[in-house]
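request received
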Amino acid sequence: MADSMKLKIVAPERIFYEGESSFLEFTTTEGDMGIYPNHIPLTAIIAPGILRIHENDTIKEAALMSGFIEILQDSVTILAESVEWPDEIDANRAKEAEIRARRRIEEGSGIDMNRAELALKRSLVRQRLKHI
Amino acid sequence: MASMRDIKRRRESVASTGQITKAMKLVSTVKLQKAKARAESNKPYFTMLYDTICSVLARTGKIDHRYLKDNGSARKAVLVLTSNRGLAGGYNNNIVKEVAAQFTPEDTDIYALGKKGLEGLSRKGYHIVEDYSEVMNDPLYADAIHIGKNVLASYENGQVGEIYLAYTNFKNTVVQEPKLIKLLPIDVEEIMKDVEIDVLTPMNYEPEADEALDMIIPKYMNNIIYGAFVEAVASENGARMQAMDSATKNAEDMIADLSLKYNRARQGSITQELTEIIAGAEAIS
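response:
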């Protein structure tokens, strides 16, 4: 049994990551997921969350906001609309975004509710990644 | 024959215009390189996204999805990508002509990206719904998401039945061609024509396939829009580079021509002066 899988993360403007991974954690619209190599083929939609790439003993983390993931037996491809390494995140901006989103949710104006909640989730993910 | 002073003034003015066009050419050359690099870096994402769409569609077969079939509305939305500045040869005009040839003003909603296209089409009587011209100065992926969401909303609530995208395809530095593509509803047969996927590998979807399509298709649309942005910017600069190159050449030709005329006029006036002096001297002696 193979103990690692090929991982490729592609963002619109660049190839974000290309390498091997032995265990992968991420968040989908259906909940948090962790996958080992030899997983059954699966396509899932990404929800805002922290992506953890386990490779041997090191763990790389990134903020993965949206996109989808295609899992095949020995390879995983993530098409990310938005993905950032911790050092690309501006903590102050994330904090501001959180405050803005909270305010909008409190005002509670119908249609923008989903957007505000999503913005809040994104800002929280960014901050969580920054503080670790 | 124009006087020497007139010719000289004319030559100077042509020379300074030539300097400007030369500078503009250099600027668009640099911008073109940048735009080309951006278009290149979007390629892997686009290809993979396209493959995913194809494989989802191939595996699920003909499913009844709202993004894949007619929604009954006769109105069409067209995203028109042009530039905000002129002096780019036929670049803007070609797009306007293409749109005017394919759509009638009565049942078309124009989403203008670029002032030149907006002006050209509103003069022809098209209805401009939104103006996103600012975007074309420096297109970002976030802009594509934002615009994609807006057009999709008007498709979902039945305002428009079809969404098109008119932009200039960047073939190479010399050739750019106006292109019109249909974004929604997606033509499944068109996509299936050129895919080779082994449908045998089973694939699970989480959530279900049609829900997955619900999420993937808008992303696919956003990406096509973004791809068109970068192509359009590259084409704009390519077209401007060419236009400015030929303008500079024309200026050089004119300067050569005017210099010749100027020298002739100078020679002529010297000859005339000489004849006058000789004639005067002969009259005295």
